[in-house]
Amino acid sequence: LIPSGRADLGIPRKLDDDIKEQIKYLKTNYPRMSASAIYRQLHDNGSLKHGDVSESTINRYKFIKEWYKKY
Q: Measured between alpha carbons, how far is 20 from 16 in angstroms, rounded to an integer?
């Protein structure tokens, strides 16, 4: 048996469309903003509740989007 890859590979399951759009907006308008700062901004404005999404999820999503832009 050959294992198949995940169908949702590279797609964050914890981030809904609204949060994804907010991340894109922040990275577009503030390109030097770090994942930590984006996480704090989303947490401070009430988009994220404590424990919903980790900072590393934001970092991975930001990294994936930047990687796909290159190729």
A: 6
For the entire predicted model, the pTM comes to 0.69
CA–CA gap between residue 33 and residue 66 (Å, rounded): 13
Checking if the pLDDT of 67 tops 60, the result is no
d(CA 13, CA 28): 22
Query: Where do we find the tokens 């509740």?
Result: 49
Residue 23 backbone dihedrals phi, psi, to 5 degrees: -65, -45
Residue showing tokens 């894109």? 24
Question: Hey, what are 20's tokens?
Answer: 């994804």
Which of these, 4, 6, 16, 10, lies nearest to 68 by C-alpha position?
Answer: 10
| pLDDT confidence bin for 8, thresholds 50/70/90 | low
27 Cα distance to chain centroid: 10
